[in-house]
Design goal:
This protein is an all-alpha fold. The chain is 62% helix and 0% strand. It has a domain of 42 residues. The chain is elongated.
């Protein structure tokens, strides 16, 4: 999602205009991207990303060979 937002920022910076340049520069700021992703995920019925960070758990078993 961050990559897509960076592409959108590049397109907005390429289009002439004060509003598009402002939005493009804002999308380059990581804190603004996180804010926008959290806000959009809540709008679509998903919990904010801060609640999802513990879902990426990988269970491993270590076997030692002597």
């Amino acid at each position: 999602m961050h990559g897509l937002m960076l592409v959108i920022a590049g397109v907005l910076l390429f289009i002439p205009g004060f509003i598009t340049d402002t939005l493009g520069f804002l999308l380059l700021v990581p804190a603004f991207r996180r804010f926008w992703m959290n806000r959009s995920s809540v709008a679509y019925g998903h919990p904010p990303s801060s609640n999802r960070r513990y879902q990426d758990v990988i269970d491993v078993e270590v076997i030692k060979k002597d």
